[in-house]
Amino acid sequence: MLKCVENLVGDRGNPVQTFEDFRMIRTLFVSAAPRLILVAIIFSGVWSGVFTASESSNIAVVYALLATFFVYIAD
């Protein structure tokens, strides 16, 4: 199926990024860690029964605000 899509779309001149090494993967994972932690907090809290879905939205907002002020503005 992917080959069919490749044949239909073709090469549109998009830049191709080659795989350099695992340092690039580590760097990307570290930069995505705050976003991944947010998802983990929401799902683990609801699944474990610590808080409900409504409470998880409040916790997500508070975490997102804190992450914005302390992580993303510092960059």
Automatic annotation (TrEMBL):
Domain of life of the native organism = Bacteria
TRAP C4-dicarboxylate transport system permease DctM subunit domain segment(s): 17-72
Q: What is the predominant subcellular site recorded for this chain?
A: membrane
What cellular component terms from Gene Ontology apply here? plasma membrane
Spell out where the chain crosses the membrane: 28-50, 56-74
Gene Ontology MF annotations: transmembrane transporter activity
Recite the UniProt keywords alphabetically: Cell inner membrane, Cell membrane, Membrane, Transmembrane, Transmembrane helix, Transport
Q: Give a short account of what the protein does.
A: Part of the tripartite ATP-independent periplasmic (TRAP) transport system.
Q: What is this protein called?
A: TRAP C4-dicarboxylate transport system permease DctM subunit domain-containing protein
* Source organism of this protein record: Falsihalocynthiibacter arcticus
